[in-house]
Amino acid sequence: MRKLIHDWDPYRLLEIGAPEDEWDREIRQIIARVDQIKSATDATRVISEVFTSAFQPEGFGEADCAEVGDRLFSALKDAGLIQIAEQAGGG
Predict the structure, then answer these.
(1) pLDDT confidence tier of residue 46, bands split at 50, 70 and 90
(2) How many domains are there within the chain?
(3) In-domain check, residue 66
(4) How far is CA 36 from CA 7, 10, 46, in A?
(5) What sections of the chain are H helices per DSSP?
(6) What average pLDDT does this structure show over 35-58?
(7) Which residue of 41, 51, 54, 58 has the smallest Cβ count within 10 Å?
């Protein structure tokens, strides 16, 4: 999670020398909401809500956070940290 948010680095704060813990508060908030993530859309929404709450809506709308949301969802799924409900078969 930390690497993913650090790679995203909104505002490029780490790039200009901010401390390594710059995004830790937001990372903890996202981790606390992992149980709400069942899709890439959910991951995008959680990131958008966390960063909008911490900063401002501009730049953190769902469209702005979609790429990092997709990456978060993939990382959580690959790590086995979320389960995706099986789609019910027809019949």
Answers:
(1) very high
(2) 1
(3) yes
(4) 23, 23, 8
(5) 2-8, 24-32, 40-54, 62-78
(6) 96
(7) 58
